[in-house]
Amino acid sequence: MDQKTASEPPCLDVDESEASRAPALRPHLATFPEIFEQQAQFLWRTLMNLGVPRHDAQDLCQEVMLTVHRRLPDFDGRSLRGWLYGICVRVASDYRRSARVRREVPTEPLPERAEDAPQIDKVHQARELRRTLEALDDLDEGKRAAFVLYEVEELTLAEVSEALEVPLQTVYSRIKAARDALRAKLHSPDAPKGGVREAG
Fold first, then answer.
1. What sections of the chain are H helices per DSSP?
2. What is the three-state SS of 81-139?
3. 9 falls in which pLDDT band (50, 70, 90)?
4. CA within 20 to 30 Å of 52's CA: 60, 102, 123, 145, which one?
């Protein structure tokens, strides 16, 4: 990757000679190095959105890339992001199941001096984000995955259905249930109302 940011580290440092040994694909499909180069940030962000803490996201991103490398010959060429997201959902789900025992909740220190006052907005934003992430953590895996794919990653309903390998109506139901649960958990009377946008 040419441009790396501190907020979104690459999944792993791939040795080009190693990556070029990826299984041969049909000509119209991307190769493993291309997928890595183009999708590493998406995978990292997706894992974070699925509840993987920042300090574990890189390791799990590597696990996703190993799965991609192993399963790439079986990829049918339809929705690459949907396929990748499905792998992320399974990896994050396994992680979250095993991590329930060691659940961590990050805290932000409150400003103590007057000159720290401009930071108060950041603290409030961090608290709201933490409340939202905690509410997402309370959702079951299916609802959380459907919600994050649709609302955060902005996949279409059809792509969410393909990524999660569930019928379209199930996706719609999970998104609606997730929205309802989040509204109730956050006690937000002004939470956006309305239906799910149409699949395009």
1. 16-19, 32-49, 54-71, 80-99, 119-137, 141-147, 157-164, 168-186
2. HHHHHHHHHHHHHHHHHHHHHHCCCCCCCCCCCHHHCCHHHHHHHHHHHHHHHHHHHCC
3. low
4. 123
| Domains parsed from the chain with CATH numbers | 1-104 (1.10.1740.10), 117-188 (1.10.10.10)
Question: With 70 as the cut, is the pLDDT of residue 112 above it?
Answer: no
User: CA–CA separation, 34 vs 14, rounded Å?
Assistant: 11
CA pair distance 142, 173, nearest whole angstrom = 10
pTM here?
0.55
User: How crowded is residue 61: how many other Cβ atoms within 10 Å of its Cβ?
Assistant: 25
Residues 180 and 191: their CA atoms lie apart, in Å, by 10
Banded pLDDT at 167 (limits 50, 70, 90): very high
How far, in Å, CA of 8 to CA of 85, rounded?
Answer: 17
Distance CA 84, CA 43 (A): 7
The rounded distance, in Å, linking the Cα atoms of 136 and 7 is 21
Report d(CA 23, CA 20) in Å as an integer. 8
Q: Which tokens belong to 85? A: 């997201």
Q: From CA 133, how far away is CA 17, in angstroms rounded? A: 39
